[in-house]
Amino acid sequence: MSSSQDSCYISLLGLAEHFRTSNPPEIKKSIQCLQALNSLNPPQKVEARTNLQIGQLLMAYTSNYDLARIHLEQAWTLAENIVAFDDVKFVTASLLAQLYQQQDIGSLSKSNKVLRKAIELSQTNVYWHCRLLLQLAQLHATNKQYALAAELLSVGIDVSEEYNAAFMKIVFMLSKTMVLIVIRKTNEVMTILSQAGTIIETQIHNTHQKEYLKVFYLVLQVCYYLVIGQVKTVKPYLKLLQQSIQVIMAPNFPSDEAVVNSGNSMENIMWLPKEQLYVLVYLVTVSHSMMAGYMDKAQKYTEKALSQIDKLKQGKNQSILYVFQIILMENIIMCRLVMGNKFIAIQEISYARDVCLQSPNRRLAVTHSAQLHCLLGLYSMSISLFEHAERQFISCIEETQDRELKLFANLNLAIVYLRTKREQQLSAILEAISVESAQSLHNQALLGSFYYIQGLNSFYKSSFHDAKRFLRETLKMANSEDLNRLTACTLVLLSHVFLSIGNSKESMNMVTPAMQVASKIPDIHVQLWGSAILKDLHRMSRDTTLETEAYNNHLAFSQTLLADHYKCTKSSEHNLINWFTGIPPPGTTGPGTSSPSVASGTVMDMSTSTSIYNNQ
User: In sequence order, which residues have a C-beta less than 8 Å from that of residue 533 and are 6 or more positions away?
Assistant: First the structure.
């Protein structure tokens, strides 16, 4: 390179940097300077770096991703085989794979090819080797190829072990735990979490990094117990998580950038920025409240989390925020249905549909269509449109690979068949659920719900002895893990069983705590059912005062539900129940306010089967 050429390159680079850092940035002029440099036929290394810089500017400041991709592809072709050029080579590979995925242009095959080649070339650079392994594992997990993701993360654990990189080893271990939770390999989860917890306490000496890792670790602990339906067992871990996130969010805690840059290069990876961790803690708290039957708490925390998401979206609109938002919406919608607010629920289902359609590349409209169908099935059940409910649950079952979501939809479908007296279909689905639960069901809440439905079926058949047997098993499981809604539903059904066999004393012993628990939740459907039983019990005991009180309560609950039902059928959002296949139809709705049920025998979700492997 001649000195005059050298001076020219340096001048153009200097100008490009001047325009980029000016206030406001003049990105077009900066790119023009870099393009002018490339037109001078610079050496291969300079050309590769310049193409990378142009690609980075286009990705960061414009929406011209096609042109960014062209420049990054050129940079990768030029840099791929240059020795000792790691900074350009691997940054380019990482960005190019990210862009393929973002544009969804043969994203899996193209990203996979680039990343695997880069991983092969980076074996002497442990920092980039680990980062690229994480990125490829994330790519496979996003595409539901969990076995491949877990395999890559295991390689990362081994590499980190070899280089004594404790921080990086924890990141790989916790990432693998996420994948194992998703695929429900729960036996392996606790082993890895136990090992990770020990390493965090004994080998991570930077206190701020340790606090971030503790949040990651505790989020996974909480998710693990929620996934297996252990609402009571999870409480101490949830409390620790809430305390830890308060430490990170305190004004005197360093910024994300300061924490990332406080260690060596092997420690400058962060799972999620603190603002997103804050939302995530709200999210798992909402899931816990929903499963435990604390609807008021679930609503309060959902509103706070959605408000935080709105603030974050005003900054950088990242795809993970849509994921958080839709999972929060799924939980709050189920709360509305339990509380009898069906009109708000269908508005929010419509809004959840809009969130899915607004997500990058409308990805959530595909990945979460099964959950939308399930919510529409629950809504249709709540207003006794059983044909629509059946079709929605079948759509959910056909579109999901999640075994627990499939089981949850089947449990509700069983109730549809029970309520519509379709005994042949009911017997077939109960048999299928029985086989599935015996083989692989680890979720205590769903298993309890299955026993509940068997009890309900026995009650409908007047097989009262069998009904009591199933329901006592349900009650034992619900009480052991503080599953309050399942407890209330079981108690009120047991009360009805005892009433049917003329045992008014035992019926009263069951319905009284059922009403107490239901009023705390609050679950209007159990209250409606319980008030009808109380009316009959007081009539049998000739207590006209209490009979009148129970009658008036029953009438008030009925009128509230009927008025809400009428509003539902008149709303434009109600028409969404007619969507059964493909991408959901677009709408013009927004969230009505902020942001499964036993309604005379409607099973409501006690699980977090909607949880997914989120972006790192």
Answer: 492, 495, 496, 499, 507, 511
